[in-house]
């Protein structure tokens, strides 16, 4: 019986890993924006307070920061700022994606 239990432990632990990945995907929203320059797909994880997206062939993970209005996420170089159904992306205080409009917003 002990041998069976010892053999089953790795399978049970791997199941926990898959469960955590599944739960995280459930807590992540995919937001589609149409910006002046191009479309932008943003993965928003409210629980972790972060957004992820690809810009200029670079995968960016930004954490939520202070904002007087709207939601602001930054990594120290890039800033994703959204308010309502619109968003803007900055790189070192320069706008790189402007007039981003959320497509099919939830109402």
From TrEMBL:
<protein>
    <submittedName>
        <fullName>Membrane-bound c-type lysozyme inhibitor</fullName>
    </submittedName>
</protein>
<keyword id="KW-0564">Palmitate</keyword>
<keyword id="KW-0449">Lipoprotein</keyword>
<dbReference type="InterPro" id="IPR018660">
    <property type="entry name" value="MliC"/>
</dbReference>
<feature type="domain" description="C-type lysozyme inhibitor">
    <location>
        <begin position="33"/>
        <end position="94"/>
    </location>
</feature>
<keyword id="KW-0472">Membrane</keyword>
<keyword id="KW-0732">Signal</keyword>
<dbReference type="InterPro" id="IPR036328">
    <property type="entry name" value="MliC_sf"/>
</dbReference>
<dbReference type="Pfam" id="PF09864">
    <property type="entry name" value="MliC"/>
</dbReference>
<feature type="signal peptide">
    <location>
        <begin position="1"/>
        <end position="19"/>
    </location>
</feature>
